[in-house]
Amino acid sequence: MRTLIPLITALTLSLTVQAQEDTTKTDQQHKLELGINSKKGVYAEVTGTQADADGRKRDTLTFQLKHKVITILTEDKESDTTASSIKERLKQARRDRRSTFTYWTGVELGMNNYMSPNGGFDLPKEAEFMALEDANSRFFALNMWEQKIDFGSHHVGLFTGLGLEFVNYRLSNNVQLAYNNDSVFGVQVISPEYRKNKLREIGLRVPLMLEFNTKRAPLPTEAQLRDGSWKGNDFSRKNNFHVAVGVVGSWYFDTMYKVKYRVEGETEKDRSKGDFNLLKYRLAARAQIGWGGLNLFAEYSLTPLFEEGTGPELIPVNAGIALVGFN
Questions:
Q1: What is the arithmetic mean of pLDDT over 115-134?
Q2: 64 and 27 in one domain?
Q3: Bridge partners of residue 177, in order along the sequence
Q4: What does the pLDDT average to over 144-172?
Q5: 131 and 49, same structural domain?
Q6: Is 80 exceeded by the pLDDT of residue 241?
Q7: Considering the domain boundaries, does residue 86 fall inside one?
Q8: Do both 299 and 172 map to the same domain?
Q9: Which residues are paired to 142 by β-bridges?
Q10: Nearest to residue 10, comparing CAs of 73, 76, 72, 75?
Q11: Could you tell me which of 34, 24, 22 has the C-alpha nearest to residue 63?
Q12: Is 239 within a domain?
């Protein structure tokens, strides 16, 4: 402001001097306009009383000094507001496309099981107390967040995320699961007969997956953004075939063992907390394949179910369907 006031004073005096010295000029007056608006931002402009062809009252300002003549010509300068807006909308379109073609957030439903070291589902004799009811050993996951890096386009990218998983193992034998510092084992129960015999884990999961999408989804052109034909997020997962492979790491923070039975007509439930020598973390290889918003997935653990040397060597596996679409 301190700089601006002397400048305005000097300009006003110069204009007055020029008007007095040059009697051949027209009676057009000069005016310095200072202002701010949404189109030009902060501006300073010299205008006259006569309008030019486009309606603007521009003029030339001349300073006549003793040995010099200084001329200032004012003209409009195109604002880059529109260009900035288009650039930002293009960035948003790229983010929308990346989000649309990332398949992690959503709900997963599946079945749990485990395999023996030889690769089969038949358990060795020392592990028979861990035999499962396959149909009732369920897997559930709620995947809440995802982030992806595209490799040039949406067709190939690497994504990670965060989810919460619930792993249920429904034991088929009428045994009481027990453990000590050295081992986990099953105690045969004659009576009562268990109606439910379940071991459950809850954990956080983080994926690292390489993903491939086949559907074409070009970004909008500058012309589409200017004329308004682009309606925002016009991307769709419909008819997109997608595949992803990678790993999922899990950390289990809660374990519960629960049995349910009836005594004299009354339903009883016993719950116990403890780690049961289960490994607190898991690293699993994962593959998923899908069409549109539907995913099929399978995971094979690269780590055992129990801590080394404390239980039978069992390899957890799960498979199921994922309903993707939170983003």
A1: 92
A2: yes
A3: 186
A4: 95
A5: no
A6: yes
A7: no
A8: yes
A9: 107, 164
A10: 72
A11: 22
A12: yes
Nearest-angstrom CA–CA distance, 193 and 159:
47
For residues 28 and 8, membership in a common domain is answered with yes
Report yes or no on 302 lying in a domain. yes
Peptide bond into 192 cis (omega under 30): yes
Q: Report whether 210 contacts 171 (CB < 8 A).
A: no
Taking all residues of the chain, what is their mean pLDDT, rounded to a whole number? 83
| Whole-model pTM over 0.85 | no
Closest CA to 324 of 286, 290, 293, 297: 293
Q: How far is CA 32 from the centre of its chain?
A: 52
Residue whose token pair is 């439930």:
269
Distance CA 101, CA 215 (A): 9
Indicate whether 182 belongs to any domain.
yes
The residue range of the domain holding 291 is 91-324
From residue 7, alpha-carbon distances to 11, 33, 66, 146 in Å are 6, 13, 20, 56
- Give residue 16's pLDDT: 43
**Which of 79, 99, 120 represents a domain boundary (last residue)?**
79
Q: What is the largest CA-CA distance in the chain?
A: 122
Q: In 101-231, where does DSSP find H-type helix?
A: 222-227
